[in-house]
Amino acid sequence: MKPLFKRTLPLLALLSGTAITYGQAWTNWNLSFKGSTIRTIVPHTLSTKQSRIQSLITWADRSTVSTDPLGSNADGLFRPGDVVVVTPDQMLWFDRSGGTSPTTNGGGGMLRGVWQLMTDGSGNLNFARIINTHNYAPNLFAAGAAPGQQGSGAQLLGNFGEENIDNGITWAIEHETNAAIMPNTGVLISTVDTGLYSSEGGIFVQFSGQLANSPGATLPSGIDSGYDMDLRPGVEGRVAYTLTYRIPPTGRQWRQEISLSVTQNRFGPLATAVLSHNLSGHAGSKISYVSSPSLIGYPVDHGWFTTATSPYYTLSGYTLSHRDYAWMPESARPTNVTWAETPPGQGLLLAIGAPTLTYPSPFFEMRTSGSLLPGFSSSYVFQAIDNRQADNTVQRVNAMDVQLFDVSRTKTPRTFDSGQNLSLIVDYALR
Q: Cis link prior to 88 (omega < 30° from 0)?
């Protein structure tokens, strides 16, 4: 695989022969956790707060399975060997362990948990969205958004073959159960490149591994092993990935960069490829959307959105559409409207939030463009999908996806040959 980074420095540094490093080194801890350790990375401003941060990690973990993280000793979804980044404004949980279910349940180093942080009235670093007197702070991603709820956070996945079917059998990054933590993890960006957050003193979190298939599932015909990515019988394909996050020392934002390299035979043919984000659902509550350009119902728009009475926020350089979607049982929705999306190749921004809740859920925002998704610049669409439980009464999760391609639209499966590389870049923020 080609190296992901090049050591490019400002002109002054090149002329003087001196590297320019922005910011102070972050602190890396291996904190005691569930009989082992969990890798924890904090900016220098929090380097004296180890005890408090260890408590926050414990409470966040317990909050994925219990509404009483202070009083219970519940075993949450975090696992030893995972990576957690804590800044004054956010906690990010990167899941290396995943689960053993055939459904997607995190792993591979993908971001699976996000919590807003703030300094509380007592001067302590604490969660910004606390639901009860027990310091219960549910995850903003679906995993643990309700006690014990499984699910992924961010994920890259898809199906093989010539038909887009949601059968629980997927290839994905999060099916990798042995993701390696790369040496750049916890390293100042400015010591490696001059990219995003380098001048703010940001760091990398980086993992590598192999795309893998759903654990425990019956593999599709032609897929010969858990890591086989070539649908031809008896021919094993391999795809390596490097997963890189760029994280600033303050603020509630980050960048995700995914690099795929076909290292053996072929990758495909593929029916779908999706960058998905499973956000917390809020049963009975109005969900609000911010997008550029506007979302429309697919395949036919029936006006299931209403225009928001006032803009939720503005962002320089973007013309944003602000829409609301009132709680509507599945039985009351038009049967041929299953989601809303942007036109192909035009999506720039999509955010989903619940600002009218008693404890408002922030807008979870993603931004990308065709130039950041080479190879999919004309086919990708942003999608907002309201997933329900089988009884249609509980909104389990809001899916916020970048569908890179779908064979039902393109009519032609995608196949990538040995030596081909793919790059996917998305920026995120909480607003």
A: no
Q: What is the pLDDT of residues 55-66, one digit of tens each?
A: 999 999 999 999
**How far apart are alpha carbons 242 and 194 in whole angstroms?**
19
The alpha helices in 195-287, defined as continuous H runs, are none
Residues of the chain scoring pLDDT < 50: 1-19, 102-104
| Both tokens assigned to 122 | 């007592």
Long-range CB contacts for residues 43-50, cutoff 8 Å, separation at least 24: 43/87, 43/88, 43/201, 43/249, 43/250, 45/88, 45/249, 46/86, 46/87, 46/88, 46/125, 49/125
Instruction: Report the distance separating Cα 270 and Cα 259, nearest Å.
Output: 17
> How far apart are the C-alpha atoms of 48 and 80, rounded to whole Å?
22
Using an 8 Å Cβ cutoff, are 55 and 40 in contact? Answer: no
Indicate the helix (H) or strand (E) that contains 58.
helix 50-63
* Helix and strand element counts for the chain (H, E): 3, 26
Ramachandran category for residue 317: left, alpha or beta (phi over 0 → left; psi -120 to 50 → alpha): left
Give per-residue pLDDT as tens, 252-266: 999 999 999 999 999
Among 370, 374, 376, 427, which residue's Cα sits nearest to residue 406? Answer: 376
Helix (H) or strand (E) holding 16: helix 11-16
Please state the pTM of the whole predicted model: 0.92
CA 301, CA 297: separation in Å to the nearest integer? 4
The amino acid sitting at 212 is A
Tell me which amino acid residue 307 is: T
Cα–Cα distance measured from residue 128 to residue 124, given in angstroms and rounded to the nearest whole number: 11
What residues does 95 pair with on adjacent strands? 110
With a CB cutoff of 8 Å and minimum separation 6, the contacts of 170 are: 104, 157, 158, 159, 213, 214
pLDDT tens digit sequence for 180-216: 999 999 999 999 999 999 999 999 999 999 999 988 7
Amino acid code (one letter) for 244: T
